Each structure stands twice: as C-alpha cells, then as structure tokens.
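Why does residue order matter? Because the sequence determines the fold. Keep that principle in mind as you read this record.
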Amino acid sequence: MSCNCSDFGNINNTLSTIQTNFNDLSGNILYNYNQLTRVLSQQSNIINTISNSNSNILSNYLIIPNSSNVFIKNLFITDTNMNINNDIFLSNVITLNTNNGTTGQALLSTGNSSIPTWDSVIYKGIPISMSGIGTIQFTNIPSWVHQISIIINGASTATGGDPFIQVGTSSGYVTSGYLGSIRGNDGPAGQIYSNDVRLWNNTAWASTNIFYLIITFYLINTNTWSFELLSSRSDAAYVSNGAGSITLGSTLDKIRVYTGSGASPDLFDSGSININYN
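Structure:
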C-alpha cells in the first residue's frame, strides 16, 4: 500500500488551522466574558455606591443627587470595547435644578416639571414699636398661610382714637363685609362689625387706656376667614371679646392695624405689635 505524504501534510495544516481558530475563538469568548464581567462589576459598584447614598435606580437610569443638581445617567451606554466611558456619561447627563429646603421648613409644591418650593412652617415676626405710628401694615403674607395671629402689647393712643384692624388682598384693603360683633364688660352695649374689626368695645376710648390684644384669623374655606379676639386693659379691670368672619375676593396677603378713622385719625403713643402665621 502506497502513502502520499503530501496528504498528511495537508491534514496537519488543516488541524493546525482548526486549532488556531479554536484558540482564537476561545480567547475571544474568554475576553468578552471578562469584559462583560468587568462592565457588570462596574455597574454594580456604581449602583451599590449610589444606593448607599440614598439615590434611586429607575429602569435603566441612575439618578445621582447632590447639593445643587440631579444627574440622570444611562447605565447601559458603553463604547465598542464595552467600557463605561466618562465622556459618554457626560454626554448623556440631564441636569435638573433642585431645592432641598432647610430644617424646619415645609414642602409647599413639587412636580415632575417644577422645582420644589419650601417655606417656614411657622413665621414669627419681629416686634414693632407702635409709638408715633397711626397705621401698622403686615404685607406679603404667603398664599399657603391658613392661620394668622396679631399680638399687641401695652398699646395706647395719643388722643383717644379707637383701634381697628382690616385685612386685604392684591386689590387693596377690604373696607366692608365684616361679620360678627364685640362686647366688653366696661358698660357700653356690644357693637356689630361692618367696615372693619373694632379691637375694643368702648367707643369712648381715652388716651390713658392701655390695652393688650390677640386676634387670630383662621382660613375655613377658599378665601373665607373666621376670627376671634380677646383684649384687656391694664389701667382698669376690663376685657372685650369678639368673633366674626370675612369673605375675600381673592387670597389674603396683607393686614393693617390702625387707630382713628375718617376725619379723626390718630397715632399710637406706646406699645408694640407682632405677627405670627403658619
């Protein structure tokens, strides 16, 4: 039997080629497996790191908040070598403005397309001296407020003008529509509210009268406010109590306290006043 040695050479070359291709294929499979493992490991490290920072993973996106911005990055964008590339990350960043508020503030509004709005839960004003002033105004009251208190401490008037209070909106102060009444133990009959809220029952107010008062307004439904007041004097054992309501045409944003009215304006000559709201 004869043997053709060239056939053995061809077979050997073929086997060598097959071995080379197999090695290349094995190497590519191992390389791709290692690359995929590395990518998954990187993603896992990112997710773990950010999750430990109280971030949220939504679908294929990673949301990374910091003190001023929120970055939204697609986790599954890679380059041709399956690397997570910082340049690619940066080219796929959406920056959203945020507002985290401060300790003690309340969240007023939020939404997918709006920046969260915060404000103080309780506003405590700074006492204002009433001496030499005829009208004290509190303006720019926030629209979210549902309770307002005015506090007066040791006030008197120069020539005996009566003290009053009115509320207002962006259209101005409301000068009619006040409902309710006030009554005291100093003799005169009670008086019904109409154009304003009288803070003391006695119409014969004297410059020597010194009074203390708190009046609180409560929002009971859209633009309707109920109120209650208690006032007393330190120069005599008298008190006055009142209650009522006022319905406004729009949002309350201001309050004024004044003494005297019409042709008889007056000035406070002592005392302090403050406002609290929440």
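The first strand starts at residue 56 and ends at 58.
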